[in-house]
Amino acid sequence: PPPLLDVRNLEKVYHLNDGLLQRVMREPPRVLRAVDYVSFSVQPGETLGLIGESGCGKSTLARTVLRLHEPTSGSIVFDGKDITRIPLAEMTALRRRMQIIFQDPYASLNPRKSVEQIVGLPLALHGVAKRGELRDRVVAMLENVGLKSGHLGRYPHQFSGGQRQRIGIARALILNPSFVVCDEPVSALDVSVQAQIIALLGTLKRELGLTYLFISHDIGVIGHVSDRVAVMYLGDIVEIGPTRALLNAPSHPYTKALLSAVPQIDAGSRRERVKLTGDLPSPLAPPSGCKFHTRCPFAMDVCRREAPVLRKNGRDALAACHLLEIEHAA
Ligand code: SF4
Ligand code: MG
Fold this sequence. Notes:
Blueprint: E1 5-16, H1 20-25, E2 30-42, E3 47-51, H2 58-65, E4 73-78, E5 81-82, H3 88-94, E6 98-101, H4 115-126, H5 134-144, H6 161-173, E7 179-183, H7 191-208, E8 211-216, H8 219-225, E9 228-233, E10 236-242, H9 243-248, H10 253-260, H11 301-305, E11 311-312, E12 318-319, H12 322-329
Parallel strand pairs: 3-8, 3-9, 6-7, 7-8
Antiparallel strand pairs: 1-2, 1-4, 4-5, 9-10, 10-12, 11-12
Helix pairs in contact: 4-5, 4-6, 5-6, 6-7
This protein binds iron/sulfur cluster (SF4) and magnesium ion.
Pfam family, one: oligo_HPY
GO molecular function: ATP binding; ATP hydrolysis activity
Membrane topology: Peripheral membrane protein
């Protein structure tokens, strides 16, 4: 089947300090290349996991795909329609089908609004529920996420973290979207609550026929929820492939390093241990060539000069590393 979402060469650049003061001070403008020509697709019904250290551009990528941030260049095709440059009014209508669940349910819920108002607001904004029907739709959605109609009149502070995330999920799903970005949806929750929310997201996906782009820095979470995984480093996807293959036998040194930092999940895994040294370089001054070369134990001369391209690396998998090109050539 054709992909639900097809992203090609997506670029998102921010120009920082190019304001008047900086021009007067003659500081050079700084460029933050948050998403650096990224391509991937998501099949209907699939969960694509997106993993990487914080600051690698995962959230910016997801928000740019939803056009909550404007793309600098590239293309985003959603359900066969190029949405990269459609007018915002048209995008607003489409947003019913593309929603996002945020990391911090508390920060993303208006503390002065009741649950009924919060979850009902998208329906009201999009004018898709008749007057008398709004409350019923909210109650039905609350039931879907494990809350009760008795919760309608309560405010966010009256709920636990897990319940608040349930409210955030209800708000995201009330418009019947087909594609949902889950941006670190359990990272702010206690470990005991994380499993409940992950299970709920899985149930809702099956029952409502959803497709997820699931962002997390936690490999355990990503391994559990994803059909395929994309690994991001400083604005690039460096490896992408089916979850089991990628976690059991990663190809890219960065993926190996990420996995080496956590205990072996699978006894049959053939993972080579790679120690991740040093901090993530500033995305304002990314290293030349392969951006990972400053931390890669296998770095060669060519790595400092030339950026490796994402190329086929086994069935349904892609990776960007000069080592793999050498292996394939040999
Ligand atoms: Fe390491 Fe070179 Fe591969 Fe980059 S291209 S991951 S520096 S071996
Ligand atoms: Mg983030």
